[in-house]
Every structure is written in C-alpha cells, then in structure tokens.
Amino acid sequence: MTKSLRLGIAGLGTVGVGVIKIIQKNLDLLSARAGKVIEITAVCAKSRTKDRNVNLSGYAWEDDSIKLARRNDVDVYVELMGGEDGPAKASVEAAIAAGKHVVTANKALLAHHGHVLASAAEVAGISLRFEAAVAGGIPIIKALTEGLAGNKIERIMGVMNGTCNYILTRMEDSGLPYSEIFEEANQLGFLEADPNLDVGGVDAAHKLVLLSSIAFGTQVNFSAAQLQGIGEISIDDITAAKGMGYRIKLLGLSQMTDKGLEQSMQPCLVPYNSPLGQLEGGTNMVVVEGDNIGQIVLRGAGAGEGPTASAVMGDVIDIARGISIPTFGIPAAQLTKAPAAQSTTPSAYYIRTSLRDAPGVLADIARGLGNSGVSIDRLRQQNHEGASAPILIVTHPTEPSNIDKALSAIAATGETTSEPIALKIVEV
Amino acid sequence: MTKSLRLGIAGLGTVGVGVIKIIQKNLDLLSARAGKVIEITAVCAKSRTKDRNVNLSGYAWEDDSIKLARRNDVDVYVELMGGEDGPAKASVEAAIAAGKHVVTANKALLAHHGHVLASAAEVAGISLRFEAAVAGGIPIIKALTEGLAGNKIERIMGVMNGTCNYILTRMEDSGLPYSEIFEEANQLGFLEADPNLDVGGVDAAHKLVLLSSIAFGTQVNFSAAQLQGIGEISIDDITAAKGMGYRIKLLGLSQMTDKGLEQSMQPCLVPYNSPLGQLEGGTNMVVVEGDNIGQIVLRGAGAGEGPTASAVMGDVIDIARGISIPTFGIPAAQLTKAPAAQSTTPSAYYIRTSLRDAPGVLADIARGLGNSGVSIDRLRQQNHEGASAPILIVTHPTEPSNIDKALSAIAATGETTSEPIALKIVEV
Questions:
Q1: If you count residue pairs, one on A and one on B, with CB atoms under 8 Å apart, how many are there?
Q2: B271–A contact, CB cutoff 8 A
Q3: Which end of chain A is more exposed for a tag (fewer CB within 10 A), N or C?
C-alpha cells in the first residue's frame, strides 16, 4: 500500500487528541479499511507547549489554521477548534478554496453557515463531512444520508445534549434544585464557556437543524428552530413527572408538514421506562421515522474523546475510500428553503404554576383553561408554601396554540405567584 | 439528470414487491439522492401470473434469473429469491461474471459462500452488497463497515430473529407452552419452510457471522458458530426468568479473543428492563462495542416489506452514488481465517432440570455442581409434579466449560427426570 491520505488537524482539545491517539494506536487496521495509509502531516492549536499527553513529534506545527488548511502536504483538513465564526470558519473556507477535503465536528459552524459551505464544497469538488458534529459517536449522519436514503423521512427526534441530560438526571437523583446542579456541572467542566449553548438548548438545536437538512432536503435554517432551555425546570417538575410515570428530557423534534418545517428543541415529558426516558448522563439517542423503515433508534455516547474521534475517523476513512456525496445528501442547489412552521400537532401538556391561596382562584384558572380550549385530565394542588400553592395540571391532548392561550389566560387572572410553564408530553 | 441506474430484480416476494413499490412511490426523491434515475428494467419470479398487487407492466419479464442477471440493460442485479444454493447462487455468480453489481438480502447465501463471492466481486470490479440480509431495515452493515470503521471492534451482540422473539414473548404473554405458540406462529406464516432455520437459530446465526466478518476482518465461517435453538425453552423457564427480573432472548454474541473467534447464537437471560429485554415481536437490536466508541445500540424492524426493501434501496443508492468498498470492508485477500474458539468468559447461568422426589437427591445435585467448580447463587424447588420436582438454579459466574461438566454431573446422578438445560445470564 503506497498511497496515503494526509491529514492536517486544527484544534488539539479532547477530540483532536482523540483522533491522533486512534491513528497512532490502530494505524494498520485503519489503513486496511481505508485502502490507504492514514497519515497526519501537520497540526495546529493555540498553545504549542501545552502537555497533551500525546506524542506530536512526527507532525509539522502550524500556528495558523489557515496556513495549515492550505499546506501542500495536506489532503484533508480536520477542523476541531469549534466556534461558529472566527478561525474555524475562515480556515474551513480556506481549505475548500484550496481544494482540500474537510472533516469537522463543528455543529455551530454548520448550523449557521452549512448551506454556503456545502455549496462551496461542491463547486470545489471536495467532500465536506461532519459526522462528529451530531450525537458524538453515533453514526447518525451516515445512517440518515446513506443507510436510510430509500425513505421519505417523516420525523426525527433526539436527545442530543449530554450536559442537559446530566443536569436533569442529577436533579432527580439528588433532589437538589437546578441552580445547585448547574453549579456542580460547571465545576465538573461540563458547561460551555457560554452555558446557554448547553442549558438554553442551542447546542442540541445546532445538531437538530443539521439532521433536518438531510432528512427533508432543506437548507439549514437554525434561526427557524424553536428553542426552550431547561433553566425553568424545577425539582417539583421532575418529581411530579416521575410520580406520573414520566421523565423530563430536552427533546429535539423535526418534521415536515403541509405548513412547513417544524423544528423544536424543548424540555418534554417522556415515558419513564421508554428508551428515551431511560437515557442517563451523556448518552444520546436519535429516533428516525421513515415511510418504509418505520422507526429506527440509535443510541450511544454523545460526547467524549473516543466516541467523537471515532466519528471523525469514520469521515476520514470514507474520504480515503473515495466516498463522495453532497454534504447534505443532495446537491446544495436542490436543497429547498422550507418555511418555518409552528407545531399544530395536538399533545397532552404538563402545566405548572403557583396560585395565591384564596377562595375561587382555582375556579378562575379552570375557566381560563376551558376558554382556551384546553381540558384538564389531572390536577394536583401541592402543599401550601406560605400564601402560595403550587398547582400541577395535565391536559388532554390539545393544539400548542391553545396552550399558549391558556398560559396567557392563567397569567391574566392575576392570581399566580409564579410564571406558569408548560411542557409537552411526548408518548414515544 | 440523464444518467440512470438500471435494476433487474429477481424474486417478487415480500421484499421484491417492497422494492418496486418504493421506486414507484419515491422515484424523484430517490433519484435526487442517488444522482441518477433509478430504473427497473426487468424482473423475474417463479410465477408470471400471480397477482402481487403491484404494476409490473413497465418491466421486461424473465423466467430465468441467470438470464436476468446477464441482461445488457441491467446494471445492478437485485437477488431477492433466497436460498443458500440453487438459482440464487448461480444467478449471483452469473451477475458477477457479467460485471454487474449485486445487491442481495440473502443471508444464507453469504453465510455459506460469502468469502468466495466477495473475492469474485473484487476480481470483477463490482460491488456486492447485503444490507438487507442482516437485521432488516437497521443499517447495521453500513454502520459497522463505514461509520464505525475507526474502531477496533470488541464485541457484537444482537437479537436478530423476529420469529423467535415473537414465540418467546407470546409464551410469556399467554402462559402457553412452546408447542402451542410454535403452531400459532406456523399458522400465521411466520416460520420458514424449514422451521429450524428460525427456531434452531440458524437464520440469526447467518446474520451474526456476516457481522463477525466485517467486525474482525475474518472470512465468513458459519460452521464455526455455536448454535442452540429455542425449542427447549419451557414456559417454566420464562416464568422463572421473569420472577428473577430477566427475559429469555435468542441472543447472538461474537468476539475475538486470544484463542480465536467466538460466535454463539443461544437463548440467554437478559435483564427484563434492559433495551434487549424490552424488545417485542419482530423488532431487532444490534449492540456494537468498539475501543473508541464504547457501546452503540441500533434498534428497528428486523423484517417486513418496507424495512427490508429500505435496506435494499440503501445499497442501490450507494451504488448509484459510486460508493464502492470491499464486501466485508477490507479486500477479501486480507480477510483472515480465525480459529473458532469456545467462550471461556465466566457468566452466571440458569439451570433447570427435574428430580426424582426422594431424600438426598438435592444433595447429590449440589455435590455434582460443586465438583464441577460451579457454586450456587440461588436455588428454587418448584411444586412436585407427580413423583418429580422441577428445580431451578442460578449459579455464580463460572466458565462455560464448568457448566458443561455440571450438566454431565447432574445427568450422571441418575436422579433427573428431564434433561437438564443451562442458559447463560447476560447482564447488558
């Protein structure tokens, strides 16, 4: 085997170091599968002197990722720096312009600039691949783009942010409030520099919109995704959900309807013993429903050195094998601009608020719900906390717009002592 | 788009008809993804006149699959007839010799002749693909060959025969014995013409050995797989397992050890609430463990028109896209001949037998187990049935060879009134 595929790796954090370790450890195996020797020629990171517990002596060093991307001895530019703009974007553009293949784990970059980059990649005749950007080690991009290509995709659901899942399951296990577990996650280094990327659902939504693009043949449109983070989830919600046989998960949902593309990332109640409900910690799960396949479920580690680097290597080996398909499965020019649609699919909802402790208040709330077209399945008033009583309601299935009306009606009574929140109940 | 990819489909049973329906229904979508128009030019089946509820008028008819495979207007020969020899094998060989790509759902053919056919396909420079042969619609071949190619695979487990899963779950639900549910499955048309293919574990083992070949870079070796069917499972076993928090599943396991390749397909006890334990009816699950990825789980429909045809179309679209890799992931000449190894991994076991109702008998059994190096974790003697008492034992973890010795020792007491059986307990 004399041919080789030469990688330039930008970013030597967890994933970058993971990729180097895999290549050093499994070179013969990888090369047999790739049909070429996989070779790292150059690397680049912020600090040259930092100890990364991996031998970099065989690789050229670049301080500038753009220079790395343009090197003559690089066939594939592996971008593992992250960030939706800045060096990541500039260097990926430089690589494409220089005719290099690109492999990236950067969901933010692609969620914001995926369509433009995919178009540029096609013009340049190179592959732009991003398996590691979505759900860590789970080969969901390949499954959706290739394995399930014989299906009209109907719906995608996924739990794809390990930090949110960690916080929610830790709250349940410990009985501690959100603020304390948030701080614990922060101490453990689980949170992004901007925590809203995790707990606001932004990171998970970046992943979801990439899946949407492949599934529905649409241009990536992050701004159209409906986002609701986990910051409002209280320990009462978690306990109440558990008491009713549910668990709260930050759940992504994407589907194409007559009105357009629905994309939402929001905390939902899912059955406690369902595959989604049983997910713990950093494990991700993606559910794909297609017209022929029915339902397919993929589960695995959503982050971490080994799993994410495994996904990067899957892309690298594909490139070595000459596998070349458009970034989002069909040529970028054929990707449509789907209008963003709000969900109109009826669901049951969980509503929580607190009420002033006075006669007739509950009747006002019930009237507000009724007038909004929302009927009550179950209602539980909890022990008073001073002059205020938490109240938990499960509705019969109703359209999301009715829930919005109901929340306004509840607030308009002037009887609430906390902002009402509503969480969708998803029976999967 | 002027280019087309022309298919010749042999076999118009459930899967063949499913493929035709997908192409008729989703032609534009498939062609956009494939980058070529997917076109059926000719078909072939035993009976030309049978009503298949699908319009075949646009396709040429061949009575002979070999002629179909050689047609000048066929680029891809799609073999959906089944059978390890006969027309399936002859026609696939003819297609390869004629330089046609081959897509097949035929696990028996590949389990017995996969290595020779893969070698021939490489010499001919064509693709031989078989996603539909393993686990129905689950894109496990693609995941293992491509998506997880960056991993040294450590272990594969899978529940991959829907009929066995149906029988075992129906026995649990109904409380009826194996023989009655077997007959029910037969009436429903769930069983192969030779039922041993299903209930003997042969069909599932065909699938397992194909996965082994990809995972471990070895020549397919069906004869080396250890097989145990579900025919000996009694309703008592199912009830006892449930009482201890387990469910019985026909579970495949493949792993490479220092001594060689272990491949087994046997009924095992798995935790009731685990993903494997919760599988119902025809749903399949494959678990892959790799050095970087950790554990990945894929779940979906293991059979049926839509799912299996979806897998066939995944392969067809890959070929249209120019994706061309060796059948088992690395060139056939590099696949090794791994020696077959018996498992030496210690496990807990469930043992059931019936004993003559007499003093001292239980002590004899306990002594037999102890002398075999097997220690008892739990033991339950059930209500007498006449002069005989069923006895259920759960052992502490022990090597499989000790269990073999223990079964011989139990039988050698001369105190048993039924053949003792042992089922491995797998904590996954």
A1: 197
A2: no
A3: N
